[in-house]
Amino acid sequence: MKQPLDVPELAAGEGFTLRPWRMSDLGLVREASEDDYIPLITTVPAPFSEAEGVAFVERQWGRATTRTGYPFVIVSPDGEPVGNVGLWLKDMGQGRASLGYWVVKSARGRGAAGTALEAVVGWARRELCIPRLELYVEPWNSASWRTAERVGFQREGLMRSWQQVGTERRDMFMYSLLSDGQ
């Protein structure tokens, strides 16, 4: 049996840090579950219950155990967990991995997503040597695609009816960042 992935603690810019999920992060899961959008595109439970919150955190641990990805909690400079950024490895055999991120409403607009994304990208390129990083963003979500672009991702195109979001299929912009910086 292969060893589980080791989700490291990473320093990010502007005093943010990234770390593995803990049971003490149930408040973050609760706030994320109250968002209109986060539960539609993630496995964050809605509505929240303590049992569902615990199951969510355990799923994050399971991603490392099954070697499918690195889930990180984004922690603000004041020590509060404010979001999630994940590096997902299902296409590593093809030389690519995907990223996803979310920040709870109370913490938006402070640079958490961008600094977290930049930290994971740098770490993935240095330590894991992944040739191609990808992410997908709905066209209406300008805050998210601007974050990706600030970190250096390039929009490659519109993937029509690419992802199930809630009860419908949605278009997604596809972004990539190559190991040679293009």
From TrEMBL:
Xref: CDD domains: NAT_SF
Source organism of the structure: Streptomyces lucensis JCM 4490
Name this protein carries in UniProt: N-acetyltransferase
Molecular function per GO: protein N-terminal-serine acetyltransferase activity; protein-N-terminal-alanine acetyltransferase activity
InterPro entries for the chain: Acyl_CoA_acyltransferase, GNAT_dom, Ribosomal_N-acetyltransferase
Residue intervals of the N-acetyltransferase domain: 27-179
GO cellular component, one term: cytoplasm
Domain of life: Bacteria
